[in-house]
Structure formats: C-alpha cells, structure tokens
Amino acid sequence: MIAGAQAFGIDIGGSGIKGAPVDLVNGRFAADRTRIPTPEVSTPEAVAGIVTQLLDQYEVEDGTPVGVAFPAPIKPGKPIDYMANLDQSWVGVDINQLLTQQSGREIHVVNDADAAGLAEVQYGAAKGRRGLVIATTLGTGIGTALIIDGILVPNTELGHLELNGKDAEHYTSDAARSRKELSWEKWGARLTKYYERLEEYFSPELFVVGGGVSKKSEKFFKYIDIETPLVPAALLNDAGIIGAGYFASKQK
Ligand code: BGC
To answer: Is residue 92 part of a domain?
Structure first.
C-alpha cells in the first residue's frame, strides 16, 4: 500500500462512500481520499461492491488493518438490528462477515460516530482529554460517541433521544436544518435543547461537534447556550475514515 499508511479506512454515509489510506502516527490521510456516491438504493450488495472497489483501487494488501465506519449500531458477530438512514435490507445482515467475504480481506466495522469520536480523542479536538467526552456528528442523522478516559462505550445512539415528542435527529440534525430551512439561530435553539438533554443525563467534560457542518461552527456555535464546553471537531469529515483505520488497527 501507500508509504506512510498503517491502515485503510472507509466511511459509509448516506450520500457518499469515502476511503483513504491512514497514517496512524499522525492521524491523517497518507494519500488523497476517494469518494464514490452512495448508490440510490443502498443495499448490502451494492455497498459491499463499492468497498471492494476502493480496496482494489488502493491495492490494499492482506494483513493491512481495514476499518469501515457504518451508520448503525454494530455488535461484532451479530446481525444489524436497526438501520435509520440506509436501505432497510441491511437489517439481519452480519456486516463484518459480508464485507470480509465479498472483499477477500478481513474487515472490522465500527459505528460511524464511534469511529469519529475515537479519532477526535486520539488525534483531534479532544486529544488526551480525561473524563467523559461526548462526540456528536450532525449530518443526515445525529451520531454520538461516549468516550471515558480514552475508552469508547460503543453504540450509544443518543441521536434518537426523544425531543419535543420526536426522534431528536428528525428535529435537530443538519438534514433537518436544510429540510426546514432553519436559520442558524433557530437551529441553534434546537441544538441547545438537544445538548442540554445530554448535559442533564451525562454531565460530560466536553462536547465535540462533528459532521460536515462543523466547519461552519462560527455560524451556529454562538446560538448554542449550554454550560459544558463545546468544540468543533478538528478532523471534520475525515474523522470517520481515520477513526475506522485506528479502530481496525486495535483489533486482534
Ligand atoms: C444512526 C447512528 C449513526 C448516526 C450518524 C443515526 O441515525 O442510528 O448509528 O451513528 O445516524 O450517521
């Protein structure tokens, strides 16, 4: 594979599937990433085909840790039992097994927000932070990662808390902001309610806000009125890929 890379990471999202070789020493890409649009009907077969295509394109060799960040709770050895924003035919599929079989390489799948959170704690905005860090991703959905003294509590799914009688991600995600054409201020008021709820339940030391919109943090952070410190993700949209590579490198 590419010089300077010790792992390969892939991030499967609602609109794009992105992959890059990962430099685990410095927590960055070792070569430019490739983005392939997510097939309109995002079935397991279609997505697995793209994962294989990316691995072939970068000539990822056997033995290289390969991690895949995926937008659903992932329990190793068990089929997916909940799928919010990709095709429902994923329910019942053992994704580690499917991707490993189809690509011919051993693949380690991790929830996408967990991957992003791990990357931010390892290399980014929460590097070296002790205590409880809650990383959130604001995108098509809302993803959450709980990391305590550097240790991940996986699959927290706090984007689906009930807020105003709705699934929080339908009310507060970045997709909800565009769909409802909310001003930054109105969206900030919704985010305040969301983060206040997390504060109330978990009393974290720090919130990290990721997802593509985090690069516009100066537009909406001023409207989020909570006590806990809140910082934008340092790795922005690269965090899923870097975290997936890191996660894979830590598996036996
Ligand atoms: C999914 C999570 C995912 C998040 C961000 C939610 O709808 O249930 O598993 O982490 O979206 O993609």
So the answer is: yes
Quick check: 20 and 2 in contact, CB under 8 A?
no
Please state, rounded to an integer, the average pLDDT across all residues of the chain.
96
Residue 163 lies in a domain: yes
45 Cβ contact list (under 8 Å, min separation 6) = none
Whether residue 102 is found in the same domain as residue 182: no
Task: Look up the domain containing 28 and give its range.
Answer: 7-111
Provide the number of structural domains found in the chain: 2
Q: Is 155 in the pocket of ligand 1 (CB under 6 A)?
A: no
The pLDDT of residue 223 is 98
Tell me: do 89 and 130 sit in the same domain.
Answer: no
> Residue 216 carries which DSSP code?
G
Residues 51-101: pLDDT tens digits? 999 999 999 998 999 999 999 999 989 999 999 999 999 999 999 999 999
pLDDT value, residue 4: 86
CA of 1 to the centre of ligand 1 (A): 30
What spacing in Å lies between the alpha carbon of 82 and ligand 1's midpoint? 10
C-beta of 23 in contact with ligand 1 (< 6 A): no
